[in-house]
Amino acid sequence: MFRFPIEQKVWDIFGVKVGGQPGTRPAVMIGSIFYEGCPLVEDEKRGVFNREKAVELLVKEEELSEFTGNPRMIDIVGSTSEALIKYIDFISEVTESPFLIDGATADVRIEAAEYAGEVGLADRAIYNSISLHCKEEEIEAIRNSGIESAILLCYNPTRPTVEGRLESLEMLLKIAEKAEIKKPLVDPCILDLPDPGMVAKTVYRVKDRYGLPSGCGAHNAVDQWRQRKKMDSRTYAIASAIASVFPLIMGADFVLYGPVENAVDMYTACSLANAYVAYSMKVDENLPPESREHPLYRIFRT
Prior knowledge:
alpha/beta, TIM Barrel, eight-stranded parallel β-sheet, 10 helices
């Protein structure tokens, strides 16, 4: 493994630390709930869902987080502001985790961000996401909400290279500054089927050049395959795990791993990758994990 030459930023978001040198702290696992097609959702416009099953899933994920040592955040997805606000109320009530505000459109995200600010949840919220398409009203809403953290999505389809993504990041950092985002999380953005390799390299370059926490949703590359619908559950789990682990080897600080229903497979794969990275850094770089709660010690019980 490797040590980055510049200072690595570490953000504390409602008690969850993200960022730093590889191996010093475990990747933050971010599962999505109430996404389009989520079996929990009974009415996606009004935000009606099966509360009992949702609690069951979240408790199971929390147990995995405790077992592996990987902290969690929750990506809350909503197709309408009414639904997203109901989901935010639920998540803030039944968990103590930070959460991502992930609306289908800017209007949905704006209303939910304003609500989070009004009810005192801004310190738990991460805006998902700021892109180059952000308009002034969205930037103003983020700033007024008091939310200090956001995903910066390096979506650059006209130049889908490492350098193209870094160019978009330069512009995104200026937008984030206008929105008064103090804790940016950089997502190089999966665009195509073979992108996990390209994105993993971009994660490395982001940390090497800026020292900012970086990660991605590499599982999205697998979900785009035409063969996806023909895959059995184990084949899909293996493919998604490989895609998600690849950026971790290059220093990724967080993993947007997809539906929370996939938590068992994804925590298993990512925590093991974290342990391998940490052991290499401890032995070869004399840079051990900052806590015994790291997967290196949780998994191998050393």
